[in-house]
C-alpha cells in the first residue's frame, strides 16, 4: 500500500524580510502549519486513527481554528490549566492524562474531560467514586489506565518514559486485572520524535505484555512522539501499522503527537545587541537560551541558524588568535541573561555581525514556546503569525505585568 500525499506549498524562506519583524519574536508560518495539518489530516483519514494535538508540545491557541479546519477535533492535556485551554479554545474532545491528580484539581478536571487516563490503579481507586457519580448523572467519561510495556528506543534518558524505574505507567507485574471494571481503554507513551518502525516494534512489546486485556477495551491510545511530518518519516508504514492493529483487535486508536503539528513551522527571530571579544568573538542576542530555548540545554541539541554554518571539525586549523583560517566569521552565540551557561555554541556567519543584525533560529515552535520563562526579567519574545498572504500579525506581546504576575 502506497498513499499519495498532496500537500500545499510553503513560503520560501529567502522571500521573508526578517528586518520587518520586531525582535525578539516567535514567528509561526501559516503556510508551513497548513502543510503539516494537511498531512496529519490525510494520515487520520487513511489510517482510521483519531489524531489529537498534545498541548505539551504545541499549544498556540490562536491557531486552533486552523486545526479544526483540517479535522483535528481534540486535544490532550496534562493539567487542569491545559484541560481548560482544550475545553475553552480547542472546543472539541478533551483528553487528560497526568502522573497524578490532586484532590483540589480533580473535580474540575472531571467536569472538563471526555477521556481520563490514570497513571496508577491507586489513583483510579481514589477517584473512581467521583467518576461513577458523574456517569450516573449522565456524563460520558471514558477511563483509561496508562501502562508501561518497558520497551523504549529513546536515546536521551530525560525523555524516555519506559526507562528503568520510571514513575510513568503501570508495568505488567503491577497491573490489576481485578480493578478494570469501569475502565474502557489503555494508554501507552514511549516514543520521542521516532519513526513508525519504532511504533511497530513498540506494539509488539505492548501486545505481548497487555494483549490479553484488549478484548475488554474499547480504545487504545498510542501516545505521542509520532513525528509524521518530518521528512523521510515512513507514513505508509504508520498507516499500515494502525490499520493492522485495528483489524486485529477491533479497537478505536488514538494518536496524540505534539511535535508533528509544530515541526518546522516557524522561527525565533532575534537581534544582535553586542559583540564581545575574548580571544573569540561572542554575539550577545536579545533572547535567552535558558529562558526561551530551554531544550537546547536540557536535551541537549543544537538549533540551526538561518544563513549560518557549523564550526570546523576538531583539529581543523585555526590561527593563533582563535579565528578560522578558512573564510567565514565565527561567533559564540549566547543570550542576554547573567547565566554564564546561557550559550548555544559556535557558528560560522558569512558576514561580520553588527548590533541590530537579525539572527533567526529555525524550527522554534514545537516544545519551545510552551517552555519559556521570565528568568532575569529579560524581554519575552512576541508571538506572531506570518500569514499566507505575506502579512505579519503580532498576536501576543509580553511586558512587565506578565513578568510581575509570576512573582509575589
Automatic annotation (TrEMBL):
Record has Ribonucleoprotein as a keyword: no
Cofactor(s) this protein requires: pyridoxal 5'-phosphate
Against InterPro entries, the record matches this protein to: Ala_racemase/Decarboxylase_C, De-COase2_C, Nsp_de-COase, PLP-binding_barrel
Supply the enzyme class, top level.
Answer: lyase
Q: Which ranges carry the Orn/DAP/Arg decarboxylase 2 C-terminal domain?
A: 178-364
A GO molecular function held by the record = lyase activity
Q: Which UniProt keywords apply?
A: Decarboxylase, Lyase, Pyridoxal phosphate, Spermidine biosynthesis
Task: Give the EC number(s) listed in the UniProt record.
Answer: 4.1.1.96
Q: What is this protein called?
A: Carboxynorspermidine decarboxylase
Q: Which organism is it from?
A: Deinococcus navajonensis
Amino acid at each position: 500500500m502506497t498513499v499519495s500525499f498532496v500537500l500545499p506549498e510553503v513560503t520560501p524562506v529567502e522571500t521573508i524580510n526578517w528586518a520587518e519583524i520586531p525582535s525578539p519574536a516567535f514567528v509561526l508560518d501559516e503556510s508551513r502549519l497548513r502543510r503539516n495539518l494537511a498531512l496529519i489530516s490525510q494520515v487520520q483519514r487513511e489510517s482510521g486513527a483519531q489524531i489529537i494535538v498534545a498541548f505539551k508540545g504545541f499549544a498556540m491557541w490562536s491557531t486552533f481554528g486552523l486545526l479544526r479546519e483540517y479535522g483535528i477535533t481534540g486535544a490532550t492535556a496534562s493539567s487542569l490549566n491545559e484541560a481548560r485551554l482544550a475545553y475553552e479554545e480547542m472546543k472539541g474532545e478533551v483528553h487528560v492524562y497526568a502522573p497524578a491528580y490532586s484532590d483540589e484539581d480533580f473535580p474540575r478536571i472531571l467536569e472538563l474531560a471526555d477521556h481520563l487516563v490514570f497513571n496508577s490503579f491507586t489513583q483510579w481507586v481514589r477517584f473512581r467514586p467521583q467518576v461513577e457519580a458523574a456517569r450516573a448523572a449522565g456524563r460520558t467519561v471514558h477511563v483509561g489506565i496508562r501502562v508501561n510495556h518497558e520497551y523504549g528506543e529513546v536515546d536521551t534518558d530525560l525523555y524516555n518514559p519506559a526507562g528503568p524505574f520510571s514513575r510513568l505507567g503501570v508495568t505488567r507485574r503491577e497491573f490489576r486485572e481485578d480493578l478494570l471494571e469501569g475502565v474502557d481503554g489503555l494508554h501507552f507513551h514511549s516514543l520521542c520524535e521516532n519513526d513508525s518502525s519504532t511504533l511497530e516494534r513498540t506494539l509488539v512489546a505492548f501486545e505481548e505484555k497487555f494483549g490479553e486485556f484488549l478484548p475488554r477495551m474499547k480504545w487504545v491510545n498510542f501516545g505521542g512522539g509520532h513525528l509524521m511530518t518530518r521528512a523521510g518519516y515512513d507514513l505508509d508504514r504508520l498507516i499500515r501499522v494502525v490499520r493492522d492493529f485495528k483489524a486485529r483487535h477491533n479497537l478505536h486508536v488514538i494518536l496524540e503527537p505534539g511535535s508533528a503539528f509544530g515541526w518546522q513551522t516557524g522561527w525565533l527571530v532575534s537581534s544582535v545587541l553586542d559583540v564581545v571579544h575574548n580571544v573569540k568573538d561572542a554575539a550577545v542576542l536579545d533572547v535567552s537560551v535558558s529562558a526561551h530555548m530551554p531544550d537546547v540545554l536540557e536535551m541537549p541539541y543544537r538549533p540551526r541558524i538561518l544563513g549560518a554554518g557549523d564550526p570546523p571539525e576538531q583539529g581543523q586549523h585555526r590561527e593563533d588568535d582563535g579565528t578560522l583560517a578558512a573564510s567565514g566569521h565565527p561567533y559564540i552565540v549566547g543570550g542576554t541573561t547573567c547565566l554564564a551557561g546561557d550559550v548555544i555554541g559556535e557558528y560560522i556567519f558569512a558576514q561580520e555581525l553588527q548590533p541590530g543584525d537579525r539572527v533567526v533560529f529555525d524550527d522554534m515552535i514545537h516544545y519551545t514556546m510552551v517552555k519559556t520563562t521570565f528568568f532575569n526579567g529579560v524581554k519575552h519574545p512576541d508571538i506572531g503569525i506570518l500569514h499566507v498572504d505575506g502579512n505579519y500579525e503580532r498576536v501576543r506581546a509580553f511586558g512587565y505585568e506578565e513578568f510581575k504576575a509570576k512573582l509575589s
